[in-house]
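Task: complex structure prediction.
Instruction: return structure tokens for all chains below.
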Amino acid sequence: MTSRVELRPATRPRLLRRPRETAFAIFWYVFLSCAAVIVMMPYIWMLSTSLKGTEEIFTYPPTWIPQKWHFHNYVDAWNSAPFGRYFFNSLFVAVIVTVGQLITCSLAAYAFARMEFKGKNVAFALFLSTTMISAQVTLIPSYLLLKELDWLDTYMALTVPFLASAFGIFMLRQAFMTIPKDLEDAAKIDGCGRLRFLVQVILPLSKPMLASQALFAFMGNWNSYLWPLIVTTSKHLRTLQIGLHYFVGQEGGTQWGVFMAATVFVSVPVVLFYFLIQKSFVEGIALTGIRG
Amino acid sequence: MSRGESPSQLDASASGSTGRKPKRNWWRRWGEETFTAYLFLLPSFLVFAAFTFFPVIFSLVICFYRWNLPRQPVYIGLDNFKWLFTDPIDAPVFRQSVFNSFYYSLGGIPLNMAIALLLALFLNRQLRGVELFRTAYFLPTITSTVAVSVVWMWIYHPADYGLLNSLLLKLGLSLQSWLRDPHLAMPALIAMGVWKGMGYNVIIFLAGLQNIPSRLYEAAEIDGAGAWTKFWKITWPLLGPTTFYILVIAVINSLKAFAQMHVMTQGGPLGRTTTIVYYLYQQGFETFRMGKASAVAAVLFALLLVLTFIQFKVVGSRVHYD
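Output:
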């Protein structure tokens, strides 16, 4: 099976028997808690401001807990820009890219992991070389290409360039290679075609890797900024990130309560999603990080 | 199912089906496999061809043209590069952007890695609630840069009700204008970058730490080594590959940073936060000079390649791979 990195400490559990060890444990907790409070501070500040009225926002010294809770900031934020549309765009684009990437990557990874063909090493090196080229370097020619195709300011521009991933191919290939060869021979003899074998046997057996690959694709796309910024101009094609930027930029920077409310509902879905799947996400990062 | 069973089953089904199958020519089978394999590679290849290989080659061409949209391109040879490096007005701006990029990278990475390693060392213990802390440290990494930038703009607000300034006032220090101060804008972005990027490195360090066999520490303990000795003689050398990996990724990622500059400072004040990527964006998508922007991209590409190479040479040679 896929080897997964366990993020549990390798040291054997020990009971806190001696006072010295108890003191150590208290020290660990205090240190880690302080660090956690510092890390969480901007989130708390964001939530706190999002619930404050205008006067309270502009008073010194600032308060951490709002004296009067203004839930109306959320309604105001939602109504002052087409955030519903932005949500739809982000979700739509991220889902298309994630599903598309899983399909193209599975096919290519299967060829690299399971088949013998002329030019395999060259093709693999060529595919891997794309990880050396960052999007910033190819920004201008890609933009000009989309312009020539008349794809600027369409969903095509937001999705098609991301429908392949060398990193995904590499990781899925690693997972596919762990599946015993006997299984495939047996299936072949039973008359099972390659595509059917891939879909019915290999993919179900590689679920953990597919899941972490899907997560990376989804998160990366959901949070992307530079690309949607340059290839879309009309308001109805803005993703959440672009929408939030224009929302905060346009207002002249005074309505911080409303801005923070908008920031909360832009960031909360991802945070909730992360809490739901954090174990596999973190393990995926550890695994790909070490191998990549 | 026991291990002995499967080969015999396989043999049975194999002998059963040989009669039905026509005898295959080895070459024919090989040709079919090659064909199918390339068919499987095709979707990915098409995307790579259109949006990676073609752009790379095309950008090498655009560098040599004056291409100010919406006008037609004009061949001008090396003028774009001459302009980047020798133009009395624009060359200093470009040099500043290269400086700013390295300032951003080198200013943040050592701090980021030091904090991440420290937190990872603390998290590498069997204590209740460790996973909760890990989750907390990782949260900034998954939050979008735009959302985080908006929150930090508010934290860095120049008035006395700005969070950071109110803390300064409490400590008896004077107000700062942070993102509007030419000397403080970049450090402010770096501080946010450290906060945002650290969680990812904590996870990678943690995985690296857990790959170190515990018997090494046990042996060292028997020999009477203290925590300090154990860290420098076991942890640090064996963590080499991990540290190296984090360093490579961190340099490359920080050179590519864009969203925080675009949202928080727009490259200002006085161009102090205009990094190479931001300069590229300005040339390409504010003034639509595709040729000049491509020349900037070529320099960025060369920098990234050289950096990766140097890191492999210098850092790679000192890393213990076993």
